[in-house]
Design a protein that fits this description.
Oligomer: heterodimer
Strand order of the largest sheet of chain A: 2-1-3-4-5
CATH superfamily of one domain in chain B: PAS domain
Strand content of chain B: 15-25%
Largest sheet of chain B: 5 strands, antiparallel
Strand content of chain A: 15-25%
Structural class of chain A: alpha/beta
Number of helices of chain A: 6
Mean pLDDT of chain B: 83
Radius of gyration of chain A: 18 Å
Structural class of chain B: alpha+beta
Shape of chain B: rod-shaped
Number of strands of chain B: 17
Order of helices and strands of chain A: EHEHEHEHEHH
CATH architecture of the largest domain in chain A: 3-Layer(aba) Sandwich
Number of domains of chain A: 2
Number of strands of chain A: 5
CATH topology of one domain in chain B: Beta-Lactamase
Low-confidence stretches of chain A: none
CATH architecture of one domain in chain B: 2-Layer Sandwich
Largest interface: A-B, 27 and 27 residues
Number of helices of chain B: 12
CATH topology of the largest domain in chain A: Rossmann fold
Radius of gyration of chain B: 54 Å
Low-confidence stretches of chain B: 1-17
CATH superfamily of the largest domain in chain A: Response regulator
Helix content of chain B: 40-55%
């Protein structure tokens, strides 16, 4: 179903997780819930997501670690951090690790939606630019390379996450 | 009084400092007693010792003095009596003596004797039949009197001695006098001369001697009858209150007469069976001693009073200082507690922000559910679970703030019996519980069994645990770890070991760990007061904190607290 944004939410606060998931679903997001960091990583390993919302403090694997893995494994995935630990240090750290934005809890939904929108746009833009680059590469190759290598590059367009 | 009672019941505290006024009153009393025992008591004991010694020396010198006077007087008296005896012996040995002596000779002899000594009253000549054949003196009726049955005569005649000095007696003349008699065998015939002597003359003689005015002199015989006595004290032949011991022949003695102790010196005469007794005349001599004694006592008393006053003032001042420092410490303690709470704030914010976020989402969701644009509106009944959930979250927030305020507001210092495990749990499960679990820190409790109750200020101890566990959480924040809390009871103390598996400390950090304002945390996160304050608290509770740490391997804090000793 194209058009629906695929979103992974990880938070150990079950009530919060349920409510936010329901609200975003009502706003046409395709939401997948994870109650801890390990679960989030497992789910992310088997499905593709456009965006991820991560709580920072979680028992087991924490949000920072999940962020690190997700950014490494999924090139175009944008991650937004949600946390009750609103501190400048952790915001800076998360940004360095590639988080798209950082929202302290509690927040206004409008603001979150705005961030999600921008994040999705950013993701699309990034993907578009990457595709563009590849297409140019393929165009270059088409003039001198074998059909097989062109085919290989074209396949990479689909496999965009790597 | 009412306030005091209320205080002791609730363990509450007055406004001036962390302890009640009664506590300081007790402290003042203790300090005064301590000072007294330390400074004044040895002085008093020493002074008493010297005073007693001084008294003994004075008494001893008094004794020696009296004995010496008695001895010198008795020697003089012996000499006097010997002279009288020799006067008589000269008479009996006179080659011109005719027996029985005629009247003229007797008169001449008495006149000669009286020229030598006015103590001679009369003389008589006695033959072997014991009859006084010749007599010259104021009592002519004594002529022809038989002395045959008198013990002194029999002694002479039986040859026990060639002279005798009798005790004082009244005799036929009803006047106290005594007799000196000498005997000799002339041409196989026993002859004796006797003379009566007036004891008053002797007394005058003795009292005219040098130093005799300082003392009263009396003479007693072996039976304790007065032989010589000043008229105002008694009469000759009255029985005296005491008889001095026969040995040693000279000395001093104490006797009780009519409830009063008398010190007297005595000396037994050689020529008669008399003892000479001397007693101090109350006068300049004795008033000097008693005056000196009064002076010494007065000065000593004054010094003791002054010393005591100083001690009271000093104790008061010391307690005043302690009170001040207690109050300062209480204020500092409160400031430090706020500092520890400041360090806690991040964790607490997380704790509160999470339920707030839930509330926010649930309220938003309800709004969404009632919004026709987003779907079919729902019935109020369907919204109820969300409202319940919101309420639960609100209560969670309230519990957190209550816990925090409870810790901050408690300013009373109150010693009560605490279970140390309850205090630890208050920190590990309560104040820092959520923080520990979201930081992936596993808490291992190795609590000892049969822990004795700890008489301590629970709130302060919670603060110590909080500071140490807080640091442990920071040290393990990055990757989580294990916090091991072990307790163990010793014979008179208990130890609490708090070990983390965090990044540990360098040597330099370890050396400065208890230095106030030393912190390894970023600016704005740590005050550097937590551990220095903890150190102060544990020390004031009579215990100690030891730290072991090596970089990369975590830190171990060991708190040792006394279980018996009450905090001073």
């Amino acid at each position: 179903m194209p058009g629906r944004i695929k979103l992974l939410i990880a938070d150990d606060e079950i009530k919060f997780l349920e409510s936010i998931a329901k609200r975003l679903e009502m706003r046409d997001f395709e939401v997948t819930k994870a109650t801890n960091g390990q679960e989030a990583l497992t789910i992310a390993g088997s499905q593709k997501f456009d965006l991820a919302l991560l709580d920072l403090k979680m028992p087991g694997v924490n949000g920072r670690q999940v962020l690190e893995v997700l950014k490494r494994e999924h090139r175009f995935l944008e991650v937004i951090i949600l946390t009750g630990h609103g501190s400048l240090d952790s915001a800076v750290e998360c940004t360095k690790l590639g988080a798209f934005d950082y929202l302290p809890k509690p927040y206004e939904l409008e603001k979150l939606l705005e961030v999600l929108r921008r994040a999705y746009e950013a993701r699309l833009q990034k993907k578009f630019e990457a595709d563009q680059e590849r297409l140019e590469k393929i165009a270059d190759m088409a003039t001198g390379s074998s059909a097989l290598s062109i085919l290989r590059e074209l396949r990479k367009l689909d496999d965009d996450e790597k | 009084m009412m306030a005091d009672e209320a205080d002791s019941r609730t363990g509450a505290v007055s406004v001036s400092g962390p302890y009640s006024e009664a506590h300081y009153k007790e402290l003042r009393r203790h300090t005064t007693i301590r000072f007294f025992c330390l400074y004044l008591l040895p002085l008093i004991l020493l002074a008493t010792y010297f005073f007693v010694q001084y008294e003994a020396i004075v008494a001893e010198s008094e004794r020696l003095h009296l004995a010496a006077i008695a001895e010198s007087q008795s020697i003089t008296l012996d000499l006097f009596l010997s002279e009288r005896r020799i006067n008589l012996t000269n008479l009996i040995n006179d080659p011109k003596l005719t027996l029985p002596p005629d009247n003229a000779m007797m008169l001449g002899s008495l006149a000669r004797l009286q020229r030598i000594s006015d103590a001679f009253v009369d003389i008589g000549y006695i033959d072997s039949s014991g009859v006084q054949l010749s007599y010259t003196g104021p009592y002519p009726s004594l002529e022809q009197r038989s002395y045959r049955d008198e013990s002194w005569y029999r002694g002479l005649r039986d040859g026990e001695s060639d002279f005798v000095i009798t005790d004082i007696y009244l005799g036929l003349r009803r006047r106290p006098h005594f007799t000196i008699a000498v005997s000799r065998i002339i041409n196989g015939e026993f002859v004796a001369f006797r003379a009566s002597l007036d004891p008053e003359r002797i007394y005058e003689y003795i009292t005219s001697l040098e130093g005799a005015q300082e003392v009263y002199t009396t003479i007693v015989n072996r039976e304790g009858h007065y032989q010589l006595i000043p008229e105002r004290f008694g009469n000759p032949l009255d029985t005296g209150a005491f008889v001095p011991p026969l040995t040693p022949r000279t000395g001093s003695h104490e006797a009780e007469v009519g409830g009063v102790d008398y010190l007297y010196g005595y000396s037994w005469l050689r020529s008669a069976n008399w003892a000479l007794l001397v007693q101090d005349v109350p006068g300049e001599h004795t008033t000097f001693w008693s005056g000196l004694r009064l002076q010494i006592l007065g000065i000593a008393l004054l010094m003791i009073l002054l010393g005591f006053a100083t001690i009271v003032v000093r104790a008061r001042r010391q307690v005043e200082l302690m009170k001040e420092s207690d109050s300062t410490r209480a204020q500092l303690g409160q400031a430090a507690k706020l500092a520890s709470v400041g360090e806690l704030a991040a964790g607490i914010a997380h704790e509160i922000n999470n339920p707030l976020a839930s509330i926010n989402e649930e309220a938003g969701l309800m709004k969404d559910l009632m919004n026709p644009e987003l779907g079919t509106p729902v019935s109020p009944e369907e919204l109820r679970p969300y409202l319940d959930s919101i309420q639960q979250s609100v209560f969670r927030c309230r519990d957190i703030t209550r816990k925090l305020l409870g810790f901050v507001r408690q300013t009373d210092v109150s010693l009560r019996e605490h279970d140390v495990h309850v205090l630890i749990d208050e920190v590990v499960d309560g104040l820092l519980g959520a923080e520990l679990s979201v930081s992936n820190i596993r808490v291992v409790r190795e609590y000892g069994e049969d822990m004795p109750p700890l008489l301590t200020d629970g709130n302060q101890l919670v603060q110590v645990f909080l500071n140490i566990v807080n640091n442990a959480v920071d040290a393990m924040a990055a990757d989580g770890g294990t916090l091991t809390i072990a307790t163990e009871a010793g014979s008179d103390h208990l130890t609490i070991t708090i070990a983390d598996t965090g990044y540990g400390m360098s040597r330099e950090q370890l050396e400065n760990i208890f230095v106030p304002f030393y912190t390894t945390k970023e600016v704005g996160k740590g005050t550097g007061l937590g551990l220095s304050v903890s150190y102060g608290i544990v020390k004031s509770l009579g215990g100690r904190i030891d730290v072991r740490s090596s970089q990369g391997e975590g830190s171990t804090f060991t708190i040792t607290l006394p279980t018996r000793e009450r905090r001073k």
